[in-house]
Design goal:
By secondary structure, this protein is an alpha+beta fold. Helices cover about 30% and strands about 20% of the residues. The protein contains 16 helices and 28 strands. The strands form six sheets. Strands 2, 3, 4, 5, 6, 8, 9, 11 and 12 form a nine-stranded mixed beta sheet that branches. The chain has a five-stranded mixed beta sheet with strand order 17-21-20-19-18, with no helix packed on it. The chain is elongated and about 145 Å long. The chain starts with a helix and ends in a 6-residue tail after the last helix.
Length: about 650
């Protein structure tokens, strides 16, 4: 490419000769670009009177429109390093001239000449040197030719680039998530901003589990199924977000129930909850299962799960660990997963949630991601699916980010700025906040350790947020946990609810976070010590190892009697060692505060156990008192009968004179 660009007037092969055919070819190319451009750009060109007198005016306008697209964060993330370097060099040659001339006129070094472009190299001196060499390689290329080549490269890499040229090409989720939002956050969610809190709830919360599913429908959150000690569950639990009350929904006798399952996903479509995919206990099915949840607002804790009979010329095979993402209001897209033979998949399917017809997403173009499961996915704009992380063959974990264009049916590997800071992870949870702008990844593991660090992707700028403390993981974080976001319709308020997970033992804590108004620029309220220490365990192991870990955990579980002793003498937090200096003291105080909060949480749990035991004993005492009262009444009746019998006996003796005489 650079050989042709240095001397475009010299014929160096078919491509170079074709590029050097003169004004006729340039005019024909201009006509083609004019014909292909959007109506908006054509109107601007036609209105500009200078186009009639300056033959290069159209080319310059096309070039400037192309640079607006090529320099956008969304577009740059789609290009390879070579393409980005090529576009950079062509733009600098067209707008600032030859690098050699810049050096001679300003006396600047390469680093000084590239000072305003240093952010593109992200501080890598090798990248800066490559940028300088690429720019210098185009010294002999005329500026007009550099403009033409820039448009040509963009044409080849992104054929429909002009569709977004009038309004800078940038995908956004704004407004897409506010439709189903709340008028205001529930009172229980209005906690201190930026700090995780354990939810103070009423009712009976779900038992410990991971690989379950959770979703929000209206003002209620549902937790469905999951795995505990290698056993699958089929229970359904409802959290009323307004009253912070948990209740278990039971299946009415004679109605259909959800089979025990794990690794499934739950989505909400038009206020109705659906469960898609997963691994089920019982008869194996070849096709992916879809169930609809039906409840009644009659005060009864009842639920019915109706299996949906799906259609289509073909359907996805049964799988667990796939991603299921809503596309608009009437469709969902399924990607990847692991089938019953433990083969990882990388196919994509769309399910129409009205007709329940499957349609395969054929993606012949681009570079599809490796087969994977336990990844996360979200929509980026209205027609692009983003897929991050997951695990594949040989338990390899990924940190790559891929985009599936649902219009062109093309896979593209996306390279956000700051990607080097993101670790591979699988089994993590993800949630969109701030009107869908920020995608937050929490928990998971990578076969070496559990991850307590969160990663935040800015979907509008397509870059990873570089602040490690912008979003802290909850105190209890693990693999196979769920995150649900609660947002207001104006997009100004967000809260996140975390539940369950596995970090050496299955968990069942409900944790809430109110997102700061100025996220992610807010000041962090807690240090890294706010995280519970991760355990080097992985959800990718087999169920037997998980069962053994949970058995060890159960051996040390507190009984009501031992909990009463623990409650009377709670564990004391570890002594804090203070270092010199204000910062060190603040960190030490924060650490001590976290330990005290954990001790308080343990005391609350123990108090709940004691309260439950006390309630059971009180019920038993009431039963005994009722039994004793019944026995007293029975004793009184017997005493009256004995007295009456004795009176009869005495009356009989008086009439006969002697008891022994007839």
């Amino acid at each position: 490419f650079f050989d042709d660009a240095r001397a475009p007037h010299v014929a160096r092969g078919p491509r170079a000769r074709a590029d050097a055919r003169g004004a006729h070819a340039s005019a024909r190319r201009s006509d083609e670009l004019d014909r292909d451009s959007s109506a908006t750009i054509r109107a601007r060109l036609e209105r500009d009177s200078s186009a009639a007198t300056d033959p290069n005016a159209n080319a310059r306008r096309r070039f400037h429109a192309a640079t607006r697209v090529g320099n956008s964060s969304a577009a740059r993330s789609f290009f390879s390093d070579e393409t980005r370097l090529m576009l950079f060099a062509l733009e600098r040659r067209a707008t600032r001239g030859a690098l050699t001339t810049v050096r001679e006129q300003t006396g600047a070094s390469d680093a000084e000449a590239l000072a305003e472009d240093a952010h593109l190299a992200e501080g890598d001196p090798r990248a800066l040197r490559a940028m300088a060499r690429a720019w210098e390689a185009l010294d002999a290329t005329p500026a007009n030719e550099a403009m033409r080549l820039y448009v040509k490269v963009l044409d080849e890499e992104k054929p429909n680039w002009w569709d977004g040229a009038a309004t800078e090409a940038r995908r956004s989720n704004r407004g897409m998530h506010a439709k189903g939002g709340m008028e205001a956050l529930p009172e229980a969610m209005r906690v201190e901003r930026g700090r995780w809190e354990f939810l103070e709830y009423a009712g009976t919360k779900p038992t410990a589990r991971f690989q379950h599913a959770a979703t929000v429908a209206g003002a209620k959150m549902y937790v469905i199924g999951g795995s505990f000690r290698g056993r699958f569950m089929n229970d359904t639990h409802e959290l009323d977000l307004t009253t912070s009350t948990w209740r278990r929904l039971k299946t009415k006798p004679g109605t259909s129930a959800l089979p025990a399952c794990a690794g499934h996903r739950a989505v909400t479509c038009r206020g109705v909850v659906f469960v898609v995919g997963g691994r089920f206990k019982g008869p194996e099915t070849s096709a992916m299962s879809v169930y609809r949840m039906e409840t009644k607002d009659d005060g009864l804790d009842e639920v019915e799960w109706v299996k949906i009979e799906t259609g289509g010329d073909e359907a996805p095979c049964a799988r667990r660990g796939a991603s299921v993402t809503m596309v608009g209001e009437h469709k969902c897209i399924v990607f990847g997963g692991e089938d019953d033979e433990r083969r990882f998949l990388n196919d994509a399917w769309i399910l129409d949630m009205t007709s329940f017809v499957w349609r395969a997403v054929k993606a012949p173009g681009g570079h599809p991601p490796e087969s994977r499961a336990e990844h996360t996915a979200t929509m980026w704009g209205q027609d692009t699916l983003l897929v991050f992380g997951g695990t594949g063959r040989s338990t390899k974990c990924f940190s790559s980010l891929f985009a599936l264009d649902l219009v062109q049916h093309k896979w593209i590997e996306v390279n956000p700025r700051g990607a080097a800071r993101v670790e591979p992870r699988a089994g993590h949870a993800a949630v969109l906040i701030k009107d869908g702008r920020f995608w937050v990844l929490v928990g998971g593991g990578n076969n070496e350790r559990g991850l307590s660090e969160c990663s935040i992707l800015d979907l509008e700028e397509m870059e990873w947020v570089d602040r490690n403390d912008a979003f802290l993981a909850p105190p209890i974080v693990g693999e196979g946990m769920t995150l649900c976001a609660l947002s207001t319709r104006d997009g100004m308020e967000d809260a996140v609810v975390a539940f369950g997970g596995y970090n050496g033992a299955c968990q069942n804590e409900t944790q809430i976070l109110r997102v700061p108004e100025d996220f992610p620029e807010h000041e962090a309220l807690a240090s890294d010590e706010n995280r519970a220490p991760p355990v080097s365990t992985s959800v990718l192991r087999d169920d037997k190892s998980i069962e053994r870990d949970d058995e060890r955990d159960d051996e040390h579980a507190s009984s009501p009697a031992s909990a009463l002793i623990d409650f009377a003498s709670p564990d004391k937090p570890a002594a804090t060692t203070f270092a010199f200096g204000t910062d060190a003291s603040v960190q030490a105080y924060r650490k001590e505060n976290v330990e005290l909060r954990r001790a308080l949480h343990r005391m609350r749990n123990d108090a709940q156990i004691v309260a439950d035991a006390h309630a059971a004993l009180r019920v038993r005492c009431e039963d005994l008192e009722r039994g004793l009262s019944d026995e007293r009444r029975r004793n009184e009746d017997l005493e009256r009968k004995v007295a009456a019998l004795a009176e009869q006996i005495r009356g009989g003796l008086g009439a006969s004179g002697s008891f022994f005489s007839p």
